[in-house]
Amino acid sequence: MHTAEVRPGAYAQALAEAQQGISSDDGNYVGAFTSTASETNFYFQFHGPAGRGGDLAIGTTLDTILVRRNDPRETQYFAPSGNPRWLSATRGAADFQQPYVTYDENTLIWAEAAYRTGDQVTALAKLNEERANHGLAPEAVAGQALLNEILTEKYIADFQLGYEAWNDYKRTCTPNLVPTAPGLPIPGRLYYDATEENTDTNIPAPGSGVNGLRNRNDPPNATSDGTGAACLGQF
């Protein structure tokens, strides 16, 4: 999926693999965290014992989407209050079993890959299968509206699954995020840190304009795949 912008055949490959993937929540791959000090969930470690609770907060874009859709995951993901607001008591607990690869993600990969290869019937069925897994009513959409629902649902489902929500955004510009710094793009790749810049002679010099640009298999989107509107954060 990461290379599909420049290699459209990747969608058919993803479709074939998704059909062999996780078929229920019982197959989710999660971290085996416990309340033992050396085995606690890393979000708990950062927010609690490390004393850095003010350094991270929930994303307002995801929270707004969940509230607008009356999605039960809003309270499952996030605490009702706080300054800054943080994860829910369940997700922020020391022994929360952090998901890494999930049935929801696989089902939505299947949905998008089916859509991209021309099978909207399967795409809608898989979207609604994932929605039913969270007690949500089925959708009845087609065309670009169907793709938008799949991509939005995947943005929700991939919360805390590493970089996948970011990778999907880079590939599809959905949701169509607004940069916090006007006139600057949302980063299209991970930056080299200062230590790496100082020791690796292959890294372009700071200020050269190269550090932070996009990889060749990930060109910027002119428009959002989900809505067709001009992409606000990639240029």
What does this 3D model show about the protein?
This protein is mainly alpha-helical and 235 residues long. The chain has a domain at 10-172: Serine Threonine Protein Phosphatase 5, Tetratricopeptide repeat (Alpha Horseshoe), CATH 1.25.40. The protein contains 9 helices and 4 strands; from the N terminus they run H-E-H-H-H-E-E-E-H-H-H-H-H. The strands form 2 sheets. The chain has a two-stranded antiparallel ribbon with strand order 1-4. Strand 2 and strand 3 form a beta hairpin. Helix 5 (103-116) runs antiparallel to helix 6 (120-132), helix 5 runs antiparallel to helix 7 (144-157) and helix 6 packs parallel to helix 7. It is globular. The chain starts with 9 loop residues before the first helix and ends in a 36-residue tail after the last helix. The model has no long low-confidence stretch (mean pLDDT 93).
